[in-house]
Amino acid sequence: MSRHQKIGAYEHFCVLIFAQGTWNEKDRESILTHLQEKHNEQRDDPYHLYLKLTRRDKMPQYSDCQICRPIYEMFEEIKGQNDALLFQGHHYLILEDDVEDLKDLVKFLLSKDKVKKLYLLYLDGFKEIKKTVIRMMSLQDLKEKLTRKRVSQTKFINSLNEMNFSNRTLYEITKY
């Protein structure tokens, strides 16, 4: 049973896997196959982290979510012309339940030679911001509401071990 009470439609879990050089189809498929296998695993947790990875190849078309568009634009800006995989969806995290999978995900991705780094963002809503402001939020407005943090894999894992994971922080996680 979840200890989290859903607070609205503005929760987002996003992961951008940034390529080292250019990926061939085999590189991309090795990551996607592993993630799909983890997605399909039978678990006690009916809403585990790997179910929360929603692949995004194009701009989200949600008419009822005004945050999806600027989030997608931000990750496209970060990605530039580089190869990458983006996962972006309306999912909430429960750190107590998801921490081991989150560590596993980061370790797996950064163990791949063809993965340079990854970006991770979790938005647990904008409780203090009026919905009318959220509806008009631009890419620049969104960026101003986020904290950016560059960390090594080791520092990120250590933070998770201490149950220290921040909402509205765009983590850039590097191998070293």
Can you tell me about this structure?
It is a single chain. The chain is built from six helices and five strands. The chain has 176 residues and is of the alpha+beta class. The protein has one domain (11-174). A five-stranded mixed beta sheet has the order 2-1-3-5-4, with helices on both faces. Helix 2 crosses helix 5 and helix 3 packs antiparallel against helix 6. The chain starts with 10 loop residues before the first strand and ends with a strand. 23% of the residues are buried.
Cα-atom Rg, whole angstroms? 16 Å
Give me the number of helical elements: 6
Tally of separate domains: 1
Q: How are helices and strands ordered from N to C?
A: EHHEHEHHEHE
Query: Strand share of the residues?
Result: 15-25%
Structural class: alpha+beta
Average predicted confidence as pLDDT? 89
The profile of the biggest β sheet is:
5 strands, mixed
First-residue to last-residue Cα separation: 37 Å
Number of strands: 5
Which parts are unreliable, with pLDDT below 50 for 5 consecutive residues or more?
A: none
Strands, helices and their partners?
Blueprint: E1 11-19, H1 25-40, H2 68-79, E2 84-89, H3 95-111, E3 115-124, H4 131-135, H5 139-145, E4 147-152, H6 153-161, E5 169-174
Parallel strand pairs: 4-5
Antiparallel strand pairs: 1-2, 1-3, 3-5
Essential attributes:
five-stranded mixed beta sheet; 38% helix; alpha+beta; 5 strands; 176 residues; globular
What's a concise summary of this model?
The chain is an alpha+beta fold.
